[in-house]
Amino acid sequence: MFVFGELMRVVATRSPTGDLVIIATDFSARKTWKLYKQRWSIECTFSSFKKRGFDLERTGITERSRLQRLFGLVTLAWMFCLRLGVWLSQTWPIPVLKHGRRAVSLVRHGAQHLVDALRWKPEQFMAVLEVLIQAFCPPGAAESEVVTY
Fold first, then answer.
1. The organism sits in which domain of life (predicted)?
2. Are residues 12 and 68 part of one domain?
């Protein structure tokens, strides 16, 4: 199909949850899926930075250096919540709802536990801190694949 004089491919598939995904692109099908997977990961990250998580949009900060510092701190907090969520999901799995998706994201799972430890269970905060200082092993990776600095 041609769009504005450019050849476009339509790539379609079903996600693991059964949702139909259709993308119009000028890349090959294989490259499209690789790029879309990265893009979707970035979209989910920014979504949790905004209204679904850290509510970064409500800041009144406009000075560039302060915004950079704020983004750095929010990114660090997001990584802490993700790390904690991955660790928690290994022992306390996130419930799967009727439509087949998890009730909360790994980041939200970790954030809820972190807030709970900070507000109500200070004795658990030391265990949380121990998790956060360990090397991060993403889901599916072997412990031997973790790179430490």
1. Bacteria
2. no
Phi/psi at 12 (5° precision): -135, 145
- Tallying the residues shown for the chain, one arrives at 149
**Residue 13 is assigned to a structural domain of this protein:** yes
| DSSP bridge pairs for 14 | 20
Tokens of 133: 């200082």
Distance CA 138, CA 108 (A): 16
Cα distance between residue 128 and residue 83, in whole Å: 10
User: Residue 102 sits in which domain range?
Assistant: 62-149
Structure token pair of residue 79: 């990584």
Q: Grade residue 149 by pLDDT with cuts at 50, 70 and 90.
A: very low
The closest alpha carbon to 113, from 101, 99, 133, 129, belongs to 129
CB 103 within 8 A of CB 97: yes
Q: What is the pLDDT of residue 147?
A: 39
Strand locations in 20-133 (E): 20-25
